[in-house]
């Protein structure tokens, strides 16, 4: 595997945490849930029911950038889960980082909405999915460090598909 930092990205409900954890386990590398890197102010703001804006996200994106840098600096592999919905967010994570690849978990809104309706106890409610898709800036061919992987198959197959795509990249 050429990349030491794998950023698993996508809208809420795309399976980032589940797939990211399984991918890290399969590759025998570290796993970080990007939600755990939010600063206190963001956690308090979200807990109060207020959405984050780009200014709120800046320190969080810097923490994700730093975590990816740490993996490279220590010559360790790691998976970091982060929505990274906008190109500017991905660019902030890329800044001064090498050996980085994004895995975009791609699925349509109907399928993800159905999966979200089946989830229990998650902060992101199905009705908020529209805003996720509205904010999503799908990676383009210009972003050569992004692998797009369909989330339609079962988790094990998605993880296998990611492993194969990483080996080929």
Task: Identify the notable features of this structure and list them briefly.
Rossmann fold, 5 strands, 169 residues, 7 helices, five-stranded parallel sheet, alpha/beta
How would you describe this protein?
- With 169 residues, the chain is of the alpha/beta class.
- The chain has one domain (5-168): Rossmann fold (3-Layer(aba) Sandwich).
- The chain is 47% helix and 15% strand.
- It is built from 7 helices and 5 strands.
- α1 packs across α7 (155-168) and α3 packs parallel to α4 (87-94).
- The radius of gyration is 15 Å and the shape is globular.
Summarize the structure.
This protein has 169 residues and is an alpha/beta fold. It has helices spanning 16-27, 40-47, 54-73, 87-94, 109-118, 129-135, 155-168, and strands spanning 5-9, 30-33, 78-81, 100-106, 146-150.
- Strand arrangement, major sheet: 2-3-1-4-5
- The SSE order reads EHEHHEHEHHEH
- Class based on secondary structure composition and strand pairing: alpha/beta
Strand-residue fraction? 5-15%
The CATH class is Alpha Beta
**Number of strand segments:** 5
């Amino acid at each position: 595997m050429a990349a030491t930092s794998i950023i698993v990205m996508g809208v809420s409900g795309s399976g980032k945490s589940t797939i990211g954890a399984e991918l890290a386990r399969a590759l025998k590398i570290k796993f970080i849930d990007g939600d755990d890197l939010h600063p206190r102010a963001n956690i308090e703001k979200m807990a109060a029911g207020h959405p984050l804006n780009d200014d709120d996200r800046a320190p969080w994106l810097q923490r994700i950038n730093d975590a990816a840098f740490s993996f490279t600096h220590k010559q360790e592999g790691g998976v970091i889960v982060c929505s990274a919905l906008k190109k500017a967010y991905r660019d902030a994570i890329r800044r001064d980082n090498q050996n980085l690849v994004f895995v975009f978990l791609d699925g349509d809104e109907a399928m993800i909405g159905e999966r979200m309706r089946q989830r229990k106890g998650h902060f992101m409610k199905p009705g908020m999915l529209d805003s996720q898709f509205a904010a999503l800036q799908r990676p383009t061919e210009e972003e050569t460090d992004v692998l797009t992987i369909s989330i339609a198959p079962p988790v094990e197959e998605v993880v296998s598909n990611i492993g194969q795509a990483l080996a080929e990249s």
